[in-house]
Amino acid sequence: MSFVDFSWLIGGPQGSGIESGANIFSKVCAEMGYQIFGKREFYSNIKGEHSYFTVRVADKKIHSNVNDVTLMAAFDAETIFRHFNEVISGGGIIYDSDLGDTPTDSVHTLDAPFKERLHKELESKNKSFTISGVLEIAKDNGVKLFPVSFKSLLESLSEETENPRLKGLIRMFNVIGVSLSLGLVKMPPDSLQKTIETIFSKKPEIAKINQQTANYSYNYASAKFENFDHTLPGVQKEPGTILIQGFQGTALGKMACGCRLQPYYPITPASDESVYLESNEILEIIDERPGSTAVIQTEDEICAMGMTIGGALTGTRSATCTSGPGFALMTEMLGWAGMNEVPVVITNYQRSGPSTGLPTRHGQDDLLFAVYAGHGDFPKIVYASGDVEESFYDTGNCFNYADVFQVPVIHMMDKFHASSVITCKRFDPQKIIINRGKLLEKVDDGYRRFEFTDDGVSPRSRLGLDNGIFWNTGDESDEFGHISEDPILRVKMMDKRMSRLDLILKNIPVEEQVVSFGVEEYTIISWGSTIGPVRDALDLLKKEGISIGLIQLKLLNPFPGDYVNSLLKNNKTIIDVEANHSGQLGKLFKQNTGRDVDYFILKYTGRAMTSTEVYDSLKKIIQNKANKREILMHGA
Amino acid sequence: MALKLSDYKTDVHNDWCPGCGDFGIVNAIQMALAEMGIERDKAVMFSGIGCSGKTSHFINTYGVHTLHGRVLTFAQGAKIANPELTVVAVGGDGDGLGIGAGHFVAAGRRNVDMTYIIFDNGVYGLTKGQASPTLKLGEKTKSLPSPNTNSNVNPIGLAIASGFTFVARGYSYDVRHLKDLIIQAVRHKGLSFLDVLQPCPTYNDLNTRDWYAGTDLVDEAQKRHSRIYKLEEQGFEPVVHYDSEPEVNEKLSQALIKSLEWGAKIPIGVFYKNPLVSTYTQRLQDKIPNYLENPPAQQNISKNGHSNTDISMILDSLEV
User: Fold this and answer.
1) Of A64, A181, A183, A203, whose Cβ has the fewest other Cβ atoms within 10 Å?
2) ipTM of the complex
């Protein structure tokens, strides 16, 4: 039995509708019952630089992209230059033949280091530095070429529909690319028409033009091109499947679990989440009047964090969402929240650092920073989600942890999560449990906010509660919250706060701390979005009869070292897989378990790992041919 | 039972220097709260860092002693989440106009309905007397190694330019007048700002109590006169009465011109008041029709321990 595993790539200049093209393609495939894993790559740029979307389509659940591209749709020269080598033998390239024989030098957005590598390859293969040069290589690789004049296609469509506007409408190129692709793989055409109608439901005129263009291009491809081996005829649809963008997981989780205040400052790749929350600011509440989320755009991340804390002090579930540079600005306040035992959630969509780094690219660079963020010792939780589906439920858990343990919680997400589009099981909000811990509804006289208790957690009042008056300060304080510099009280208070770390390890169920996919002679430790490619790589190896273990760390601070040790037992080769330079999880692992990491598989190109790369490296490790540090490089 | 002035005082030992202007401000705040009869558990005092930061510990309402320069951020978040609270933020001039100047300007743009009081003494007291943002260029207070190399910021002018809708100045040794200003500021619907001149007896040997009292100024009749005078006694009319550009511009510009007056005569009182600008609460209410009736802090977020938010419409739209 052969599996469907098909990868489609669409590329073009930023602002030319790559994302909406990919959305149409993904939605059509999902409607036809396929599982989707898509990912967007883009420059820190508004218009003109190269942007591309890879959509992997399969008939079973997938968690990553692969190196191979089965079919590419290119309507500019740059996409061909950058990606021709990724298309597999038997795969295809649909491209705009009007591009003619564009030379590399006339594509100004091809940067020097890339051009140098490309020219070297072309030179070695004795090819010209032009589109035909690279397409010859593709052809030599067994790739089928499908040239289409996008301009003439629009012209004849314009005549046929008697709509002169269509003639020069280059913004239709994305729909042409998508529809040619779908025609080529014999996707049933109705789903394409239906999807366009849904996407443009509010703009019937635009829907119509798009549908005409789609229909025409689809028919053109099915009539003209016949020799393509790959087809996507549709499979049985899994009921209750949603197609979702990465940032929607945490946003929907926040809505469901009662986050009602989210101040934020714009930063890539985090702001999408806040904008989405604001777009859905009014909330339906079961059996009650509507609720709402106040989403406040602030002047900087410091204010965002300050407002979040201020909101949390009123008893409101409050969060902010940011990325590395913004999180860096929040750290002084993080310490204040720790000192004052304020439950706040910071959703941290990491990107490549240091500094501004690669602002629109992926990285798991901030694990150690999150764990150690802030001056002084104070308890905090650092928690990481492995995929978008998980992130919905984890968001609910993060707010519970914050409330129950009265500590700030940093929910680690990243750019790979944020810009992926996946199919998954429809979220079940009823699985979101709300536990507000010791938050008080009523207070008797003599209240002390920081009262010493057996478990180290004090009953929590909130601003405005009758009789619940308390004081907060960043200074060390007494039980009322008034400043105290008494040395003995200092020790008691410090011990009280820090005892929270043990309490957290003891009280969070272990299956929420760590997910074990099995422990084998070779066992991987990993975290966050990297789990996806690792899982798919392990599936591939399993088919070859090779079993490798995987331990996913979700709770990263406090680190469940004893539990991880108990899972690993003895004599295992430990492989740390993550997307940063220094193997940050590996360091935490060693610090907390006393065990060395034997191999690192690391990627810091700014592009997410593919399962192909992880598979290749694991193979090398098993064959004893690997370096201690395997550095992955795939991806444009 | 009616609340007395003493109800608003905590028994926390006050460790400000003897003769510090801060005492007058904290007294005026307590008097204002008592006079308005604000319930203690419906009021929150936010404070920044420095001598003035301790203010929240001396007042028997909710008290949140925050971080240097960041007091407005905490205060706005609390007020937005729970608009029923009476929110007063206090801090020094270094706190609000130095490290916190960005938040000061942004807060003006938002016009959240709360009050911000700056304890303005020209020095960083708790770090032993460095120059603060309101100290003038070339001035040398006693612990500065050399004269101040920065120009000063004009707090009243900056507040007006930033969009504060109530801007006033008080003097910490005129407690009754200051108390009246605080009451007006708290009652104002919008963001009110009070610049309170507050001599630091330990580190500011220039702008002393005697200096404000004009002991160095002697007129022809050999009579001393105080530098401080009250705008309201001069017939100054600070209020924007109707929402028209010429009216607003006139009131803004006269306030700005007044704010430049310094030296032999220093005005206190209300410089500018515009009750016609929408508050941030109103702006949220425009987007979220039941925001005030069901603000973030009041919302019930669970039913029998489970989520009660119905996101099924959104999930339906994502379903394939």
Assistant:
1) A203
2) 0.98
